[in-house]
Amino acid sequence: WSCTVLQKIGDTTLAKVGEGFRKLKHLMMLRCDAISDVGLADIARGCLQLEACGVFRCSQVTPAGVAALAGGSSRLQRIIVEKCKVPEEATGKCRMINDPILISYY
């Protein structure tokens, strides 16, 4: 399963995705200002087959949310973070949680 989430989606929706799409492998979120670390933690807890996740221009996402994603699925290979509240130096800390996840920061 793959999913692309655009704009008007928030943490409540991500909680439902985590509950209902346990076989989700790819998730891309673009300009979702209502998504926060809470929603990413729900995805990490529920989508245990997640292999790749992109978080693009989601202004409420912080290093804690990226760390939650990195600590979720053991199958996760890549997290892409673009223009969120995640400083580049934070991605190294996340990488140590679940090696060998490639975390790209733009």
How are the SSEs ordered, and which strands pair?
Elements: E1 2-6, H1 11-20, E2 26-30, H2 37-46, E3 52-56, H3 63-70, E4 78-82, H4 88-95, E5 102-105
Helix pairs in contact: 1-2, 2-3, 3-4
Task: Spell out the key features of this protein.
34% helix, 106 residues, 5 strands, alpha/beta, globular, five-stranded parallel beta sheet
Describe this structure in words.
There is one protein chain. With 106 residues, the chain is an alpha/beta fold. The chain has helices at 11-20, 37-46, 63-70, 88-95; strands at residues 2-6, 26-30, 52-56, 78-82, 102-105. A 5-stranded parallel sheet has the order 1-2-3-4-5, with helices on one face. Strand 3, helix 3 (63-70) and strand 4 (78-82) form a beta-alpha-beta unit. Helix 2 (37-46) runs parallel beside helix 3. The longest helix is centred in the first third of the chain and has 10 residues, at 11-20. Residues 93-100 have low confidence and may be disordered.
